[in-house]
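Chain A, query sequence.
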Amino acid sequence: MRDHVGSCGRRVVWPLKYPQGMRLNTLSLALLSLNALPLMMGAQGDGCAAGSRSPAPDVQGTWSIEYDNTIGVEVKIGGTVYNHELGKGGGSFTITHQGKPFTFNLDCSRPDVVCPGEAWPNQVVIEQRDVMHQHQMVVDLPTAKCDRALTQPAPGTCGTGTSNPNCDLVCGGNITLHTNPAFGVIGESGDSFRLYLGGGVVTNGINCAMLGYSLADADLVTSGQSSGAWEATKMQAGLVTIGYAGGCLFAGPAPDGTTQALLAGAELKFTTGFTGTKQ
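Chain A, predicted structure.
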């Protein structure tokens, strides 16, 4: 069992330009809130070397990704945590909280939902665009976009202990997906990476914007460091973590006011393992 948290405890200033609509403060939130993640099996990505100017292995190129056959599920609702397991295609499941059933559905066919195998697809192209910061990596991946202007979060729905601790503006409408650059960091020692999958839009607790801690981590197998031709050829012990607000995936009957409040504060976390090979 390895701690899924990187070793840096400071704010990381990202030297890359962001695509229009992507918000730096939300990515910084992801970096700062990683200590809230539970212990998980899988690689411990090192997200601390974004500003490093030391050499890093060459990860550029096309990678084939293979996934585990299961998706781990963690539901946090009303201060209680429940665990479940799904097949790799997702599906519905029910937990019982305080004697009441709550049904959720990870429906990978929905246009506003990104499942683990879509957030980090079966084939990805990785770039290292900045020769002065070789530890930075960029991958074009599905990114959430709000269909209207962002608004202030409702009173009591943000702050410490919520999925929006910085009280960032939220999307009060529908989520659509567009391909945009996702940013990652190769660890200082060159043997791991962390890719930030969330952070495009902050959810209002009902729509399906990925939570800011959504990540892909893996260990890197490299060769040629001593010869100056340092290259990564494999990813091992990979772990994709996707987070959604409870209201996004609720599939039960129309909720009453009490249930709506519980769902707005609930979080659903999905994890699956992966390996990768450079083509």
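Residues 24-32 form the longest helix (9 residues). The first strand starts at residue 61 and ends at 67.
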